[in-house]
Amino acid sequence: MPTKSLRNFATELSFANEELKKLDAAKSEFISIAGHQLRTPLTVIKGYTSMVLEGSFGKIPESIKEALNRVLISSGALAKLVSDLLDLSRIESGKIRYEFKEIDMEAIVRGVMQELEETARAKGIMLELRNENIKDAKLVGDFDKLHEVIINLMDNAIKYSSKGSVTISLKKRLAGDASHIVVSVSDQGMGIKPEDIPKMFVKFGRTEEAKKVIEDHKGRVSVESPGPGQGSTFFIELPTSRN
Predict the structure, then answer these.
(1) Is the pTM of this model over 0.70?
(2) Dihedral through CA 197, CA 97, CA 105, CA 153, nearest 10?
(3) pLDDT tops 90 at residue 148
């Protein structure tokens, strides 16, 4: 290729790269603005629905209560989706805020299991906790962010399983003077093709969010699967100290 053509190609490539950066910034800004604009009406919907269910506007028939409960559940799910989008927008812009303090990972795991118990039971899936001789599962981290990571991974495990069980395990790993808490979430679901494993942490996926949060905690996240139809296991490894 002639030198002039190479220069033109390099110029065009540089221009295209700058345009992509602008589009990416515009996308993040749109997600942030749309998310905040959706959050306010959703809060109002949830608030007034709760008030009606509590009888603030008078007694209502049971049939209407059932319908309103569905509205409340659906609006809650949508509010969580909006929250996830806002978190992702902050993660991409590097503006996500953490509140680091001593937390108990076992307490987070047990809390998540209680929250998802009904969801799992409705699909005929058993939730199992394996504590591999950990007497102290405390570490320094952001409770809400790590809770969200665990609940998203477990929710995905339940969603993609049609039978069997979802097992979450806790164990401690020592590496020299440092210690780490390892949390694993295993399912008996559809499994993952070997060539698809590197794609598990792509943008806009829950796993991509989890990876960013865990890395910001100086930890790491990984996934293993024997193959299609054989389930999968996600691993989260977190240092007990931020020193």
Answers:
(1) no
(2) -30
(3) no
